């Protein structure tokens, strides 16, 4: 009991304060200027706003999650079905470039290559005669999701505070001064849409109405309405044309609502003006402090679930842009924690239940024609956006992506049938708000057919973390449909005794031996994805007690897939043939999908594949595009090499333009491909979590990859498979000192830890043996790899760990400490 009370006393300061009172602000001593990537992001999953914080003319650049070009459409190419046998024949005869040329003609869409996520416009605030300011300061406080800009002018301190409310569907801005009667400015709405209609309504409201662009032959039919309304304490409000002027007020409050006519990917019958008016009216008469309180309360219900503390140094006292510039050459551990929590902030702000999933830029985009249309690239980028969802305790925020997968399973049925004569459903490498599933861009990228396979695994992951049996029952048709497609699409390879995907590729790479064409048969990633699709449906059926002939046929088909192979360079082969080059530095290392996010490659179950994966990582190198470095943090964490994972974090947290080979981070901590892609933020947040906790390899592995730079710290709130939650965990010198784990579902808790531990209170802690009996820790079945005769692969020496089992009760917490 004394030891338990000691631990509670030790833990209480972290639970009360933790990082919540520490370094959770992005702050700067200069305005953004004209640079969008200097502005600070606010959002509630529906409305996104980029806050520039300029003094004389401030800008709030506005987005709404459904404002996309085009309208409901399909982009299948029915010519594919007739051409499929010829394309396969060319592939099997080694005529890869000819196969690619024919695929470009017969498989790639002749219609839309996807629509664009577009901005709504800007809310502009003009403050004449505010040019001679001093003591400038702006911040984004991610502990409460509020931005603040302040400065002094003529002895008066002016402050602008803003948030996009999670409780009320509004952007709310409060402008104050520390002397009465000093708040004077003009506000207006602008838009890059040429058809926009802007008008002042009365003395206190401005309306911006517009319709999105036509694009690639698809008419723009999303109609949107933004409404801004002002109120003041004292002072005067007048209308000047389409602008509203405030004079000599004590304070002013601006509220902005935005809505569109979008109901679903196949329905645009909503009333955007009625919706925007309703959202505005519901909040306008509320007191500002009540709006703020409700917003913070709802936001912190998500954000406060995880606390992370790596300690701090004097480096944390600098502005964020200076910390970014210095990070690769200094010790600033709290910057890593800030970046981790910033990723969680971005997910909370850009993905809320009932809304659209976070796209390539989350919910923030200032361009009418953004890079890659700011779509959903589902050969890595969109999936990476949601890697933090389950493991960083934001499971509900996974819902928009999971809903998109369900919708893709609807639209993808026609694609599977019309293009490939297959049952079930499928998607290629890209989609948009209209849930297109046809192949786009060109055969080199677009012929990949694994989009449905990969996205469907997120449904299974959600179940493994939550244990929601009703959810599992609801998604079984989606899981089955993904398996049905591949059951029909697989074809026997004429040279090898395997069933393969043909045409397929390894996104977005090509071996020189294939004439520089990406098109192939039986690439390693394709095989891994099909293996997971079949295994997931088999295992999900087992959980639900289902058994049928289709399950038996999937087991047979799975046994005929190509096993993973170790090539002549001691690498995990990317293709069926041993044609990898150790000089290849391509950003995509897609065949390591089997290491992460999948669990087919394990240090304990498949040690030689694990060693080959490390060689592949070393051969590909570290510095790459931003999202690629984010993925590499996760891989090196899985390698249990915390120092190398930390090196990738330092590479990623380097100002854009410094790294040779791309990547890096903008001043506002947005990830740079370049340009901005948000997936790198989310990938790195996931990777930091994986350094501290892993649960995909048969156990809850605590502290698997702690780097020297973060050898002591504290974390609370991370989640593991099987419904286990790390309520609190403290470590020193890379050893676990104390941890409390709550069992939300009950069942066996298998712990893998870096040092010997003991259990406080009741219960037995025994050394674990054999397979984990907890079904949530099912690790699949990996076929014995094929090793090249030229390979000299050796198993890696792993850090010593200790493995324990304890049978837990649902809802009970268990505390462990270092063994004396």
Can you describe this structure?
It contains 19 helices and 34 strands. The strands form 7 sheets. Strands 1-6-7-8-9-16-13-12-11 form a 9-stranded antiparallel β-sheet. The chain is globular and about 80 Å long. The two termini are 16 Å apart. Residues 1-6 and 12-17 have low confidence and may be disordered.
Note the gap between the termini.
16 Å
Task: Classify the secondary structure makeup into a structural class.
Answer: alpha+beta
Shape: globular
The residue-averaged pLDDT reads 95
- Helix-residue proportion: 25-40%
> What is the tally of beta strands?
34
Weakly predicted, low-confidence segments: 1-6, 12-17
Q: How are the strands of the largest sheet arranged?
A: 1-6-7-8-9-16-13-12-11
What is the CA-based Rg, rounded? 27 Å
Please, how many helices? 19
Largest sheet: 9 strands, antiparallel
β content, as a range?
15-25%
Sequence-ordered SSE layout with sheet pairings:
Layout: H1 2-16, E1 25-28, E2 40-43, E3 47-51, E4 57-64, H2 79-92, H3 96-106, E5 121-126, E6 134-141, E7 146-153, E8 156-164, E9 171-177, E10 183-190, E11 197-201, E12 205-211, E13 223-233, E14 236-240, E15 243-249, E16 251-260, H4 272-284, H5 288-303, E17 307-309, H6 320-326, H7 333-350, E18 376-377, H8 381-385, H9 387-391, H10 399-420, E19 430-431, H11 443-446, H12 451-466, H13 469-489, E20 491-492, E21 499-500, H14 524-543, H15 549-559, E22 565-566, H16 607-620, H17 626-638, H18 642-652, H19 679-692, E23 693-694, E24 700-702, E25 713-716, E26 719-720, E27 724-732, E28 735-743, E29 747-753, E30 757-760, E31 766-767, E32 786-787, E33 802-808, E34 812-818
Parallel strand pairs: 22-32, 24-29
Antiparallel strand pairs: 1-6, 2-3, 3-4, 4-5, 5-10, 6-7, 7-8, 8-9, 9-16, 10-15, 11-12, 12-13, 13-16, 14-15, 17-25, 18-19, 20-21, 23-24, 25-27, 26-27, 27-28, 28-34, 29-33, 30-34, 31-33
């Amino acid at each position: 009991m004394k030891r338990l009370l000691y631990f509670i006393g030790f833990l209480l300061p972290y639970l009360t304060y933790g990082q919540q009172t520490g370094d959770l602000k992005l702050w700067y001593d200069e305005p953004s200027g004209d640079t969008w990537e200097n502005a600070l992001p606010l959002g509630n999953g529906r409305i996104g706003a980029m806050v520039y914080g300029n003094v004389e003319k401030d800008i709030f650049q506005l987005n709404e999650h459904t404002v996309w070009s085009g309208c409901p459409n399909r982009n299948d190419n029915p010519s594919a079905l007739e051409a499929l046998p010829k394309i396969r024949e060319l592939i099997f005869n080694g005529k890869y470039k000819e196969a690619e040329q024919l695929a470009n003609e017969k498989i790639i869409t002749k219609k839309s290559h996807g629509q664009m996520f577009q901005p709504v416009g800007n809310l502009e605030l003009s403050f004449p005669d505010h040019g001679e300011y001093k003591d400038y300061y702006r911040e984004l406080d991610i502990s409460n999701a509020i931005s603040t800009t302040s400065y002094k002018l003529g002895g008066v301190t002016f402050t602008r505070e803003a948030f996009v409310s999670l409780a009320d569907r509004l952007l709310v801005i409060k402008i104050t001064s520390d002397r009465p009667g000093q708040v004077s400015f003009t506000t207006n709405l602008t838009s890059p849409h040429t058809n926009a209609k802007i008008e002042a309504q009365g003395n206190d409201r401005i309306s911006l109405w517009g319709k999105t662009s036509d694009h690639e032959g698809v008419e723009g039919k999303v109609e949107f309405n933004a409404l801004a309304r002002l109120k003041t304490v004292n002072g005067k409000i007048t209308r000047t044309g389409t602008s509203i002027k405030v004079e000599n007020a004590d304070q002013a409050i601006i509220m902005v609502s935005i809505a569109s006519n979008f109901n679903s990917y196949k329905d645009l019958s909503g009333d955007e003006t009625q919706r925007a008016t309703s959202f505005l009216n519901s909040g306008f008469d509320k007191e500002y402090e009540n709006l703020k309180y409700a917003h913070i309360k709802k936001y912190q219900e998500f954000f406060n679930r995880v606390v992370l503390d790596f300690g701090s140094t004097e480096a944390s006292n600098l502005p964020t842009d200076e910390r970014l510039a210095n990070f690769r050459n200094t010790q600033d551990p709290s910057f890593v924690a800030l970046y981790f929590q910033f990723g969680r902030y971005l997910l909370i702000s850009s993905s809320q239940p009932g809304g659209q999933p976070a796209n390539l830029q989350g919910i923030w985009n200032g361009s009418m024609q953004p890079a890659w249309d700011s779509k959903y690239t589902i050969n890595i980028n969109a999936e990476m956006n949601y890697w933090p969802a389950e493991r960083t305790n934001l499971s509900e925020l996974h819902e928009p992506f999971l809903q998109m997968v369900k919708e893709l399973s609807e639209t993808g049925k026609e694609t599977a049938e019309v293009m490939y004569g297959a049952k079930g459903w499928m998607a290629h490498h890209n989609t948009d708000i209209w849930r297109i599933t046809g192949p786009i861009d060109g055969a080199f990228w677009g012929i990949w057919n694994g989009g449905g396979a990969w996205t469907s695994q997120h449904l299974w992951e959600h179940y493994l973390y939550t244990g929601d049996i009703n959810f599992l029952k609801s998604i079984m048709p989606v899981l089955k449909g993904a398996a049905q497609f591949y059951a029909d699409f697989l074809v026997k390879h004429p040279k090898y005794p395997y069933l393969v995907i043909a045409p397929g590729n390894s996104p977005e790479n090509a071996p020189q031996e294939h004439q520089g064409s990406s098109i192939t048969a039986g690439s390693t990633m394709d095989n891994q994805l099909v293996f997971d699709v079949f295994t997931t449906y088999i295992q999900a059926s087992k959980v639900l007690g289902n058994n049928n002939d289709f399950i038996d046929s999937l087991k047979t088909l799975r046994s005929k897939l190509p096993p993973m192979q170790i090539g002549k360079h001691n690498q995990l082969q990317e293709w069926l043939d041993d044609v990898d080059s150790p000089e290849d530095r391509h950003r995509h290392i897609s065949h390591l999908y089997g290491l992460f996010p999948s669990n087919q490659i394990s240090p304990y179950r498949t040690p030689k594949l694990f060693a080959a994966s490390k060689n592949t990582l070393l051969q590909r190198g570290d510095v790459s595009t931003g999202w690629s470095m984010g993925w590499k943090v996760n891989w090196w964490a899985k390698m249990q090499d915390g120092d190398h994972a930390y090196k990738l974090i330092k590479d990623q947290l380097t100002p854009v333009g410094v790294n040779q080979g791309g990547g890096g981070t903008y001043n506002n901590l947005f990830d740079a491909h370049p340009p901005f892609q948000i997936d790198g933020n989310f990938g790195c947040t996931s990777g930091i979590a994986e350094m501290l906790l892993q649960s995909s390899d048969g156990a809850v592995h605590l502290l698997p990859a702690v780097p020297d730079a973060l050898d002591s710290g504290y974390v609370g709130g991370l989640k593991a498979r099987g419904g286990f939650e790390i309520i609190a965990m403290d470590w020193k010198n890379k050893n676990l000192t104390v941890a409390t784990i709550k069992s939300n579902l009950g069942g066996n808790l298998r712990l893998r830890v870096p040092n010997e531990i003991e259990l406080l209170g009741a219960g037995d802690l025994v050394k674990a043996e054999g397979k984990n009996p907890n079904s949530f820790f099912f690790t699949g079945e990996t076929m014995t790899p094929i090793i090249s005769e030229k390979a000299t692969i050796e198993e890696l020496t792993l850090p010593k760990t200790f493995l324990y089992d304890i049978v837990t009760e649902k809802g009970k917490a268990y505390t462990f400490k270092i063994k004396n």
